[in-house]
Amino acid sequence: MTSTAAEQPRGGGPRRRRHRIRNTVITVLGVLALVVVGFLAWASTPMMGDRSAALEAWRDPAVTIHDAGDSVVLAPSGEASGTGLVFVPGALVDPYAYLYKLSGAVEETGLTVVITKPTLNLAFFDQRPLSTFTAHAPDVTDWYVGGHSLGGVRACQLADDPAVKGLVLFGSYCANDLSDSDLRVLSIAGGRDGLSTPDKIAAARHLLPPDARLVEIDGMNHGQFGDYGSQPGDNSATIDDETARARLTDALSDFF
Fold first, then answer.
1. Secondary structure string (H, E, C) spanning the chain
2. Do 36 and 90 have their domain in common?
3. What would the pLDDT profile of 150-165 be if each residue is shown by its tens digit?
């Protein structure tokens, strides 16, 4: 017997429903693929370091620099202090952008610095253990961790490692609570920082040990913690890059 129109399955039958579901799945997968490709393209275009500033560090006879693949290592040409700093760059910032700003402390104190190369240029995606980077400087006996901006947030997490003696923050603050730790902490804020503002840093002060040392550099903005140019959302600095470097070097040298 032939079915009437009223007896036909609604929606055009199982075959048509499967066709619609398949098209929906293909569309969703296509959108997800575009999102992933867009994200990877964005993450693969970091803010590059200033070449002239990096060359100043490379040419400094008091500092030796070598690329270790997963990081860049700065060491004193003369006697090393035995103290090391694993430093995590800010989000989408070229690791080489920190060579010049950190080289002053290497020269002044004998500090060894290992600047990490985060996965996808984003510290949160880099879950490698601290030992990955400390292995590049086996003669160091006392390790500190540090970072700029979101790199500092990651450094706060790495500070839970029992091998860590202290923490150094450049325009950054912790998301985890370290207030009960015995870590030595130096937190440096820029007075003109438009991203990690002094107020934001002060609001997170309770997450640091009571004796943490807080330093604010007047006139310094967020981008001047490295050498990579201007950054969206930042304020204009009222000091030049050389002055910013000198004051960073002073703060680090006093601390170390």
1. CCCCHHHCCHHHHHHHHHHHHHHHHHHHHHHHHHHHHHHHHHHCCCECCCHHHHHHHHHCCCEEEEECCCEEEEEECCCCCCEEEEEECCCCECHHHHHHHHHHHHHHHCCEEEEECCHHHCHHHCCCCCHHHHCCCCCCCEEEEEEECHHHHHHHHHCCCCCEEEEEEECCCCCCCCCCCCCEEEEEEECCCCCCCHHHHHHCHHHCCCCCEEEEECCCCHHHHCCCCCCCCCCCCCCCHHHHHHHHHHHHHHHC
2. no
3. 999 999 999 999 999 9
